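User: My collaborator and I are trying to settle a disagreement about how two of our proteins should look. Neither of us wants to argue from intuition anymore, so we agreed to look at predicted structures for both before our next call. Could you fold the first one, then the second, and keep them clearly separated?

Assistant: That sounds like a sensible way to settle it. I'll keep them separate. The first protein:
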Amino acid sequence: MSGEPQITADAHTVTVYVPLRLRKCGGRRLVIGEFRSAAPGISQRDGSHRTILKALGRAYRWKRMLESGEFSSITDLAAAEKINHSYVRRILRLTLLSPEIIEAILDADLPKGRQLEQLLKTVSHLWTEQAALIR
């Protein structure tokens, strides 16, 4: 293959071949300065918030996979992800949280000490009753 990008196409697919050479560079990197997060209020050591964000991302990804028909059931999805189906069910509950709570999670504006387990134990599916979680 030459050094120039090559493009091939058929009725449904366009394939672009781009020559690429990766070099592995060893060594340490020294970063001087203050850590800045993408969202204000998230500290580098705030593991509980990162756990909530990760779970929320998984929940919406799994919901999209189920709705698209990629998987026909939660059990099939759990088997493909190699995790327990009860965990998938619990995490999927996060998609039922109110937009106000989702926004608070994304803005790192949850009350200090709020844990993922507390969000998963939401008593009501009514958004007005869920508001107590962020107060």
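The second protein, kept apart from the first:
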Amino acid sequence: MEACLNDLLKSPGFLGTKASFLSDITLVLILISAVLFTIGWQLAVQKHYRLHRWVQTSAVILNTIVVLTVMVNSFLLYILPGIPAKLNEGSYGITTLHALMGMVGLIMGVFIVLRANNLVPKALQFNNYKLFMRTSYCIYMLATLLGVIVYIVVYIYGI
């Protein structure tokens, strides 16, 4: 069973690029997260705060699972050993920038979700939700855009 799953994840992807199935699934799940974040943002604009919180919480959970199970491992295995020597080569620079933006967005998103669900101590609570959420959303979308660029650079152009 495990060997079969590993073979599937390493098999060619379904998006018609040089990417593996795992890379294609990762891209799709991250794009789903971005769509959910955008839907959640619109729900807040329409003052559907409870539904907004549920959608944003779901998006953060999905994003966190993908980042921690796939992206962190890939970065540690393939990119980190080449830093700083290879930052100007291939996809090292853009991938590193994507990882840094993604890490900031992930940390902010998880913290905001914990705060919104009353799971942080009072000393760490904030009341200016709009500033934190808008900043987090912008950083997350930038990280997503950078991730799509990484996918294109690596799996379409083969750099």
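Some points you might bring to the call about the second protein. Helices lie at 2-10, 21-45, 49-79, 92-116, 129-156. Residues 20-156 form one domain.
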